[in-house]
Prior knowledge:
mainly beta; 9-stranded antiparallel β-sheet; single chain; Lipocalin; 4 helices
Amino acid sequence: MSIDNLRRFFHLTSGKWTGSFHQFDGNGNLLQKINTRLSASSYGEDELISLIQTLYIEQPQSSISISGLKEEVEWAEYKIKETNMFTVDKYQEIGFFPKERAFSLRYRTAGMLETVLRQGVLGEDDTGEESPKNIKLPSRRPSLVCENCLYSQEKDRRARAFHIMDPRGFVDMLIIFFEDRGDGPLIHPSLVDMDGQDRILPFLGKWEGHSVTKRSGVYGSTMAEADTVSLLEMDDKNKLIQDVTSKGGGRDVRTNVHWTGMITSNSVEFEGAYQLTLLPGGMYMGYPSDIAKSVAESKSFHLEFCWLEAPGKRQRLLRTYDAEGLAVSSTYFSEVRV
């Protein structure tokens, strides 16, 4: 990443964020919701500039309380490792889209997410057990932890989606941080379902848009753009048919992808061994049914996050990995329903 883009990335992420942490299983069921705050700022100059972030996690009320006294909200503090010129390429493998206001990056562990769950659910009652009751913690040795972040096109708001894959290559859990930026007292935003509407319905139909793909440094640091058309239909037996066409490049290259799948509750499984978990708030997260199988067959795989912030208008971020687990590219999509 260039120093100019690093400054832009720090400017985009800096500030005070009031948010909510949502933990889902692979079927889209909400497991935990925890209020959070995040403070981010930069220091240093030129190549020595760094981003420091502190996450504050609202703790539950203590199991021991004094009658008649209202407990004050307690916040646990967690220092996130600094981001700088060295870490962005070597460890985080950031794919950054300054104009579109989106980014993808990876984590080596799920330590931050485990801390949020322990402090936000157990609080002072945490005894340090590796597998405490009534709480699902991420694997201590995940095969992959990926963050895809999309910024609102209407508000000073963002959604950060985390795929956590277990050591076997299956989805362990899905996490969403939903955050508003501002200095004043803000209400913690929450993900909610549209009244009486199946989560799949907003995504059905024909979508047209544009994509930007940025390949990582290991793969040449190149960029490509394309026009895209996506059609998703569902019959009365819950069978889904998806056709995706992209056209771009100096040679007028056209790519067509055809998938069929079935939807059960809030989970879509395509025959191409790819799954979507439908989430509240007009979101879904996509991932391979079995990453280990893709790796064994020396195939690349991708993780996707989609946010339909307003009816008929959506953003998608897709992160592609090679069989060695290195980031190949990040692709940003902006689409409208026609």
